[in-house]
Amino acid sequence: MKKLSKDSCIGVIGAGTMGSGIAQLAASFGHKTVLFDANAAVLKQADEKLRKSLEGLAQKGKITDDAAKSTIANIHHAASFDEFAKCDLIIEAVIEEIGVKQEIFKKLETIISADCILATNTSSLSVTSIAASCSKPERVVGIHFFNPAPIMPLVEIVPGIATSKAIVDESRALIDTWNKTTVIAKDTPGFIVNRVARPFYGEAIRIYEEGIADFATIDWAMKEIGGFRMGPFELMDFIGNDINFKVTETVWTQMFYDGRYKPSLTQKRLYEAGFWGKKKGRGYYSYAENAVMPEPNKDMELGAEIFSRIIAMLINEAYDALYMNVASKEDLELAMTKGVNYPKGLIAWAGEIGQQKVLDLLLELHSIYLEDRYRPSLLLMRSAL
Ligand SMILES: NC(=O)c1ccc[n+]([C@@H]2O[C@H](COP(=O)([O-])OP(=O)(O)OC[C@H]3O[C@@H](n4cnc5c(N)ncnc54)[C@H](O)[C@@H]3O)[C@@H](O)[C@H]2O)c1
Predict the structure, then answer these.
(1) What digits encode the pLDDT tens for the residues 267-313?
(2) Is 45 a pocket residue for ligand 1 (Cβ < 6 Å)?
(3) Which CATH fold would you assign to the domain 10-184?
(4) Which pLDDT tens digit goes with each residue over 11-21?
(5) Cα–Cα distance between 34 and 354 in angstroms, integer?
(6) 3-class secondary structure, 231
(7) Which CATH fold topology does 194-383 show?
(8) Ligand 1 center from residue 318 Cα (angstroms)
């Protein structure tokens, strides 16, 4: 197998939010980068946005003029797939549709060299099923960046069941040279971050639905008591309720409808209404020009109740991911602190709060609601003993 290095040519398919960021990242580390999008207007837009952003960074002195110029010069806009023939690693970041991704990989295999690595940036599809469309599934790997790709430090490397270890090691080593923190995640729904973080949103919505507290109070509790940078509702509005709802729905369906991941009607209605958050001017909150943000109820007892319930659910999910070998303990902790900026790793947090205390709360919730959603992980139960 050919070794990847800074001389390797990187292909990126899809020049939307993620693809344009990944291309910028690769080009900024000196790689000749080939970028393609089925929609020529998107490619043009990506180019304009990149030039503007790099010029802005250079003006602010954050990067040198030369760095800005060479990043731009390193990105070549491809007119057709044939131009991927010279690439050593191709990362696809097209729309989240399995059929589209499979077709792309099938077509690429007729063009690329025998040792070119094929990667998918999918957030929620199975890497194994994308790879299964290829004649050489062993060269297909998940390389999951977070948005914005040039800035977010975490990258989840996801081997499919047929992926060769050499391909995993080689792609991980290359991404490490792009100043990223890489973690290995098992090819399971949501990988690490999008699985373990689900209760941050889901349990917050549940607390709201039960009338225990409003959005502002729940956000306040998680920031003030939990030390999170953003509250769950602020964060969902920031990510987009369209994206966040779809990820929740996909993880739930791919987990064979496990009640722990059940989406909420509250978010589904926001999704249906087009209240997707900041980008639409309306989500859980209004972002209209004269909108006044609602004031939280800063009752510490209520805040502690909210925080305890959400953190217990997050810790339970982290323990279960560990129990199910989704990732090593170290990678789990890194993923949540680097991927979604949690103030602490969840396993370490459980140690601080006390596993027994977390377990007691889950058992209490489970006995009250009689819902699978509060089912404690066996590993948490064992750790609390
Ligand atoms: N947006 C995020 O926060 C995020 C984070 C991590 C991973 N992802 C994943 O990255 C991928 C892309 O997401 P995005 O948010 O950048 O989407 P996007 O909609 O911004 O961009 C997708 C691009 O793919 C292009 N495209 C569609 N079909 C194509 C084809 N057959 N050939 C070439 N180009 C084609 C579209 O024209 C579009 O520009 C998805 O798999 C998504 O799950 C997204």
Answers:
(1) 999 999 999 999 999 999 999 999 999 999 999 999 999 999 999 99
(2) no
(3) Rossmann fold (3.40.50)
(4) 999 999 999 99
(5) 50
(6) coil
(7) N-(1-d-carboxylethyl)-l-norvaline Dehydrogenase; domain 2 (1.10.1040)
(8) 28
